[in-house]
Design goal:
single chain; alpha/beta; binds guanosine-5'-diphosphate; 10 helices; UDP-galactose 4-epimerase, domain 1; Rossmann fold; 6-stranded parallel sheet
Length: 311
C-alpha cells in the first residue's frame, strides 16, 4: 500500500515516520510538510496528490494548539482547518485516491453530553465555548467525508485521538497543549530556580495518548478502516495535577509546583469510550505506554534537544 502522509514534521507525523520504519516495512510511505505543498491552496494540493498518486492519504496536517491558543486565535483555527481539510478531501476525490484517513479530536465533542462519549455523539450538541471555532471546523471534516461516502461511495475515515503528547511536540509556552507547555515551563523553572506554574485548578480530567502509540494504532487500523470513525486513546483518565506532578518529578522540582486557579480550566472532562477501537485492534500485540513513561521519555528528549525544538 502506497501512503501519502501530510503534516510530516508535526508531533504525529514524526511519530508515524519512526513507527512505520520500525514496525511496518510493508507500507510504502511518502511524507510531505508545508514546505512541499501548501494545503491551503487547492490547485497545489490536487497536483501534489496527483504526482504521488497514493492508495491512501493519511492527513495529519492541521492548525492545532492547546486551550489558550483555541481561545485566542479562533479565526485562524477555524479558517486554516476548514480550508485545509476541504482541499484535502477534494484532492483525494479528483485523483481517485482510494482511502483517506484524517484526524479529529475528542475535544470537539459536545460540552454537555453523557459520558463516555463515543463515535455516535460528535454532533449531538455545541462544543465547549473555549474551542468552538476549531471544533466546528474539524466537525466539518467528518460532515464532508460522510457526504462523499454517501454520494460517491468513497472510503474516507476519521480517527479521533484524545490529548496527544510526545517527542517533537510544539512546546510554545502560550499556545501548546498542557503536557508540552508544562515540560517547557518545568525546564525553565529548574534552570532558573523559579516556581513551576500550572494554569487552572489542576482538577480537570483528561485522557492522554503518547504520539508513538497513536501512530502505531493508526497504522495497524489502516487496512480495516472503511467509511469509519474511531476514537483512539489510552482509556485511563488523569487529573491535570497528576500529569503536572509527573513532569515536576522528572525535573525534580515537586516542591515548586504552584497552581494558578484564576486561569481557565477549559472543559472539566472529556472521557471517551475506546470500545470501537478495541474491537478493531488486536490488543494481544499492543500495549499502551504509561503516562509516567511517556512523560519521562518526552522530558529526556526535551532536555537533550533544547533549544533546537519548536519552542
Ligand atoms: P484540552 O485538553 O483540549 O483542553 O487542551 P490542553 O492540552 O491545553 O489542556 C488544557 C488543560 O490543562 C486545562 O485544564 C488547563 O487549565 C490545564 N493547564 C495547566 N497548565 C497549562 C498550560 O501551561 N498550558 C495549557 N495549554 N494548559 C494548561
Amino acid at each position: 500500500m502506497k501512503i501519502l502522509v501530510t503534516g510530516a514534521t508535526g508531533l504525529v507525523g514524526t511519530a508515524v515516520q519512526r513507527v512505520s520504519k520500525s514496525l511496518f516495512p510493508e507500507y510504502n510511505m511518502t511524507f510531505i510538510s508545508s514546505k512541499d505543498c501548501d494545503l491551503l491552496d487547492l490547485e497545489r494540493t490536487t497536483s501534489t496528490f496527483k504526482t504521488h498518486s497514493p492508495d491512501c492519504v493519511l492527513h495529519l496536517a492541521a492548525d492545532v494548539g492547546g486551550l489558550y491558543k483555541n481561545m485566542n486565535q479562533k479565526v485562524q483555527m477555524y479558517e486554516n482547518n476548514l480550508i485545509m481539510n476541504y482541499n484535502v478531501i477534494k484532492s483525494c476525490y479528483h485523483n481517485n485516491i482510494k482511502q483517506l484517513v484524517g484526524m479529529l479530536s475528542t475535544c470537539i465533542f459536545p460540552d454537555d453530553i453523557e459520558y463516555p462519549i463515543d463515535e455516535t455523539k460528535l454532533t449531538l450538541g455545541p462544543p465547549h465555548a473555549s474551542n468552538d471555532a476549531y471544533a466546528y471546523a474539524k466537525r466539518m471534516f467528518k460532515v464532508q467525508c460522510d457526504a462523499y461516502n454517501d454520494q460517491y461511495n468513497t472510503n474516507y475515515n476519521c480517527v479521533i485521538p484524545a490529548n496527544i503528547y510526545g517527542i517533537n511536540d510544539n512546546y510554545d509556552l502560550n499556545d501548546a497543549h498542557v503536557i508540552p507547555a508544562l515540560i517547557h515551563k518545568g525546564y525553565l523553572a529548574r534552570d532558573q530556580g523559579d516556581i513551576f506554574e500550572v494554569l487552572g485548578t489542576g482538577e480537570p480530567l483528561r485522557q492522554f495518548i503518547y504520539s508513538d502509540d497513536l501512530a502505531e494504532i493508526i497504522l495497524r487500523l489502516l487496512p480495516t478502516l472503511n467509511q469509519d470513525s474511531v476514537i483512539i486513546t489510552n482509556p485511563q483518565e488523569y487529573k491535570i495535577k497528576e500529569a503536572a506532578t509527573y513532569i515536576a518529578e522528572a525535573f525534580e522540582i515537586e516542591a515548586r509546583l504552584k497552581f494558578q486557579p484564576t486561569a481557565s480550566d477549559g472543559q472539566y472532562r472529556k472521557q471517551a469510550s475506546v470500545d470501537h477501537m478495541l474491537k478493531l485492534l488486536n490488543t494481544d500485540i499492543f500495549q499502551f505506554t504509561s503516562l509516567k513513561d511517556g512523560i519521562d521519555r518526552t522530558v529526556k528528549h526535551f532536555i537533550d534537544n533544547y533549544p533546537n525544538l519548536r519552542i
